[in-house]
Every structure is written in C-alpha cells, then in structure tokens.
Amino acid sequence: MKLPLLAALAGVILTVAPAQAQTPTFIPDIAAKFEWPTSAYDYDKRVVMVPMRDGVKLYTVIVVPKGAKDAPILLTRTPYNAKRATERTNSPYASATAGQMDEPFLADGYIRVYQDVRGKYRSEGDYVLNRPLRGPLNATNVDHATDAYDTIDWLVKNVRESNGRVGVIGSSYPGYTAAMALIDPHPALKAAVPQSPMIDGWMGDDWFQNGAFRQVNFDWFTSQMTVKMEGDDIPRRNFDDYTNFLEAGSAGEYARRNGLEQIPAWRKIAEHPAYDAFWQGQALDKILAGKPLKVPTLWMGALWDQEDIYGAINAYKATEPKDTNNDMNFLALGPWRHSGANYEQRQLGPVLKLPGDTATEFRLKVLKPFLDQHLKTNGRKAEIAPVTIFETGTMEWRRYDRYPLACAAGCQAKMTPIYLQPGFGLGFQAPAGSGLAFDEYVSDPAKPVPYVPRPVRWDDPDQWRYWLVSDQRHADGRPDVLTYVSEPLTAPVKIAGEPVANIFASTSGTDSDWVVKLIDVQPGVVPSDVQMGGYELPVALEIFRGRYRDSFERPSPIPAGKVQRYRFEMPPTNHVFLPGHRIMVQVQSTLFPLYDRNPQTYVSNIFFAKPGDYRKATQRIYRGGGQASSIELPVVPVN
Questions:
Q1: What secondary structure letter does DSSP report for 316?
Q2: Fewest CB atoms less than 10 Å from the CB: which of 3, 154, 256, 462?
Q3: pLDDT digits (tens, 9 = 90+) for 363-405
Q4: Considering the entire predicted model, what is its pTM?
C-alpha cells in the first residue's frame, strides 16, 4: 500500500516558502525615524519653515482637519514652543492635539496655526525680548508686526483649505504678538483677540508696576533667555523665597549672584529703572492710539490677573474712541487668574468658588461666536455686547455698552470717594477736623510685609497664580499695615471702573513705596461656605513708587517729613459689596518679595541700592481737611 503512494509523491514537486530573514540579534533597537500611522487621523499636521521678508524662516505648525474646505485660520505666535502647543495629547483627534481653548475651534473645522517667534525654539533669527517696532529702538527692517504680516500672507497663499480669513489670538506674550499684528495689519487679518496682553512693561505688565520691579519674574528670564529652547529656574538656597530675596538685598544683587548679568534683556531693564524713552517707545496702548482701527478686536483680561492686569483694559481704552459705531472694539474681563480664560476656571485658589466653569462658558458663548462672525465665510452675527464683564460679589456676567461706567470725566457716573476715618474707620462722609490728623506706622526694609503668608514657595505655582485672591488677614493687624474698615453695609454698593487711590502721606525717609488694597470683608459666618467666614477678599490692589509722584520719567527725592499727594489708578473692577459685608482699605509700604524693596533712602537706581541705603522710615497717612486720604470708587446704581 505504501509503495504506490511513495511513487505518486515522488512525482509531485513540493513548493516550500523560503525562510523569512530574521532581525539580527544585535541591531540597535531605537527606530531610525519612527512615524505614527496617521492615515486614520481626522487631521493633518504640517510643519513648515515660513520665510519672512529678511530671509529668516519661522517654525510653524499647521493643524488642518481632514476634509476642511473654505476654513478659517486661527494663528498664535509664541515664544513658548509651537511644537509643544500642538501636542497636548498624542491623539488621532484634532480637538485633542492643541490646548483646551482650541477644542471647539478644531472640532468645528478651524485651521489652527502655532508659530515660534524669531529666535526661539525652532525658528531662525535673533530673539529680542518684546522686540520693539522698527524705529528708534529697532534699526532692523523687521518686528513682530512685519512677522505677523508675512506669516498671514504666506498662510492665505499656501494653505489651500483656507477661506483666506485669518484671526490672531494669544495670551500673555502671545497676547502681545497678537496686538502687534494690529500695527499695519494684513488685509486678510479679520479678527484679533489679545488675551492678558503685555502692553506696557513698566506701567503694569510683567516687569514693573508703577515703577516697582516684580522680582518673581527672574525665573522667567532664566527659563526663556539662557538657551534658545527652555532653560531652568534659578537654583534656590532656601525653601522660602522671602529669605532668598532678603538675603541678597537689592534686586540687582540677587540678579548678580545668580548670573543674570549674562542676559542682555536683564541689563537693559536694570539700566532703565524710570519710564524713559526705552519704555515709552514700546508702550503698545499709546502706539495703537495713533493707528486707525481696522480689525475687529476683542481685548480679553482677567480681574485677578497676577501678571498682566494693565494691558487689556488700557489697550481697550486707547482704541475705543476710534470705534464710532461701537461694533469694532470689544472688551471682556472675567473672574480669572492670568490666562485662566484658556482653561477650566471653577474656582480661584483653594477657597473662592465660582458659579460653574466660567472660562469654558465664556469661550463658547462669547469668544467663539465673535471669531465665527469675522472668520467664517458669511459668518453669523454674534449676539455679544461691546463689553462682557463678570460681576464679582453677585457672581454674574454683565453686558455693557461701555466701560468704565464711572470715572472722573466722560462716564455716566462720577467717582465717589470713600475716606479714611478716625479710629481706623472708613466711610463716604468726609472726616471732620483739620488736615493735621494722621495715622502712622514704621516701615522696616529688614522686615517687609510678605505678599502671601510665608513660606513664599518657589515650587508652588498656584500660590503665585492665585495670590490676588488670598485672604488679607495675614497682613491685617501687623504694626506696619494700617487697616481701615467700614461698618457692615445695609445696602449693596456696586463699583464698575478703576478705583483711584488718593493718598496724602509723609515719610521720614527720602523715598517710599505705597501699597493700597481695596478689600471686601465677608460676614463673620458664611454657613454654606464656612471657609469664607470673615475672609478679606482683595477687589483691587496696587503699588506705587513714591519717587514718581510728579513724573514717571524724571524721579525725584521725597522731601522728608513733608506731606505729599500720591494719586494713582488701581486695576479694573466690577464688584458688588453685598449687605452684611464691610469695605476695607489697607495701606502699607512693602509687598515682598513680589516687588523689590524700596530702600526708603533716595538713590539714583534702586536696582543697585547698597545695604546701608535700606533704613526704617516713619510713614504717616493723613485723613483730615484738605489732606483727607480716600479711595475714589466708581460707584454706580445696582442693577
């Protein structure tokens, strides 16, 4: 039986698959160039080096939803890594690739573009901090305005899926680049949203606040300008930054000890402590005031912005007179920290609760409709008000035609002073008595008032992000802080504008800082939210360097022992002090280490004050007659 079978098999030619080549055992195991399979993704990601007019090429990431056609473009120009901005998650879905703010735009078919500014990360060229416009401070033929123009020009000519309509958006430094795009804008630029933009680095954005230097930004210098990519924070000798800065002495000495003299941007700032031509020539609100209003713009700010609280409101005010039909220039102020509008914002800090996710609500109901109207082909008209602003206290959004509602001149209501009273009271009635009445405290630079309860933690970003809503009971009661408080209110008091500190003061020194806080004191017991019982919530807070009382450009010593008037605007408010609450004002001379200490002895450049320059001073705050100190409040009727 077997032999015939074998004979039959002998005539059959068997086909055997050749042996598969095996991977050599010792070949290196890291892929030469790994690429994710993206054919099933719902978007394409393109990386392009976009040429500028001077030949420099800027690294640009373009996220295009698949099937996009006649799509609007939303552009952000950033010094914070365009590649990372489009890698929120490694996802096959466009709406998950970029930031939380981008989700509804990418889901709706927008083309999203991020670009590294020149000289940072993967872009060519030289990086200059807040590169000034072409002119006296910039001898080249390029700036952020020309780079925005050239980028937009390239995008509308080369991104075939677009409808030729571009919007710019960004927060903080990218808010500044968005505002710069409004200088001689490209015809395809149809909308701009500068969020918490850096508009004037001396008056109140990032570097200074009315002449006082913000020391916490030293880490930003080393992270941004020690290398082209991302650098490190400054090494700490102590856990508490209060100690670190106090041990160094002056801001200049702290910088020297940590090597910052190697960074040209720091040297430029240290060489220009006053509001001279260096700062004036970069003030975007003043520059925009001299330009025609060509692009619909939504200026976005945060009521508790710890970094750039000056920019949005002042750029809006500078450009608003040009908006004759009240349909081009918009303002939005939300209950957020710096850049909080781009994330989820249900709570500020560990205690202050908001009525839901106010940031997402705003993005969906105001921001996206605004951009849809101006960027989509035949976009639907947005039903938004010229001013959208959150009302703290009542915790509700409000819609206004203008802002502020009360001011010294040109508003529907005048300012209403609330006066410092005898016995540390506070009231709307001018105090009786002569102008000689005063309260006093001793300001000791060796024991400055901390801006948050110690330790001041360099490793806790939330302590910094939310310090503007921190409970001021930590300062209330200190001997170097004067606290004035009203009786419990029997009726609501609404303010909608920028309070003005009007302080009459003398010092035994020859220079001084003045810190004024406007505070809402919660009732002693809040049954539904026990942590808020007695909470001293800052509504507006400002510092002013006394040497600039007559001129920001030309400082002068304060005559020792003589009463001087210090008048300065505080940040924007839209707040209701509710019945049962009390209004409080605190006055002090240090806010450390957030701001550098004033030596209280006049020196030409406080950055380089010597240890012997720092001296105690007796500070007197006057509250009577023609020298009655007050806070002028933008009081308006309650809705």
A1: H
A2: 3
A3: 999 999 999 999 999 999 999 999 999 999 999 999 999 999 9
A4: 0.95
